[in-house]
Amino acid sequence: MATQSFRANVGVVLVNSNGMVLALERCDIKYAWQMPQGGLDEGEEPLDCAWRELYEEINLTKQQAEMLRESPTWLAYELPKEARKPKTGRGQVQKWFLFQFAGVDSDIDLSPAHPGDEQEFCNWKWTTLRQLASETWEVRRHIYEQLITHFSSYLTE
């Protein structure tokens, strides 16, 4: 049954030179903040997916970011029953990557990377990961709190 599966996904913690992380506000849900993330395509490697998501969601290229670390384990969250869909199933299992932002703020572009795609995010900001964890959807909070531990040496409290 599709609703019993967990979707394979990657997430990106994009950190600036001050140790702040990029937070994106969803267009479809006002005040819903999160970090870049997306599903793995068939046969795609997690790191390749992370680079693709950076490009598709904020138009960043490999010249504007550097991969520093990856989470030591896959992290999972379960969706509430009313939020489950065939595409996401019961929840998501995610591999997280920490990237150093090497560009300038004006490089962050929320417009769709591909013609015909809908814009997913309408606003962005730099914040602490701890602050973002308190602002994100509650099902994601425990993931973000684990990321604070995994990547603490790169982050501003």
What structural class do the secondary elements suggest? alpha+beta
CATH topology descriptor: Nucleoside Triphosphate Pyrophosphohydrolase
Radius of gyration over C-alpha positions, nearest whole angstrom: 15 Å
Which outline best applies? globular
Main sheet properties: 5 strands, mixed
User: Which CATH class?
Assistant: Alpha Beta
The separation of the N and C termini measures: 42 Å
The helicity comes to 10-25%
What do we call the CATH homologous superfamily? Nucleoside Triphosphate Pyrophosphohydrolase
- Strand fraction: 25-35%
Q: Spell out the helices and strands N to C.
A: EEEEHEEEEHH
Quick structural summary:
The chain has 157 residues and is of the alpha+beta class. It is 21% helix and 31% strand.
Layout of strands and helices, then pairs:
Layout: E1 6-15, E2 21-26, E3 33-34, E4 37-39, H1 46-58, E5 65-70, E6 75-78, E7 91-101, E8 121-127, H2 129-135, H3 138-150
Parallel strand pairs: 1-7
Antiparallel strand pairs: 1-4, 2-3, 2-8, 5-7, 6-7
Structure commentary:
The chain is an alpha+beta fold and 157 residues long. Strands 1, 4, 5, 6 and 7 form a five-stranded mixed beta sheet that branches. It has one domain (2-154): Nucleoside Triphosphate Pyrophosphohydrolase, CATH 3.90.79. Helix content is 21%, strand content 31%. The mean pLDDT is 94. The longest helix has 13 residues, at 46-58. It is globular, with a radius of gyration of 15 Å.
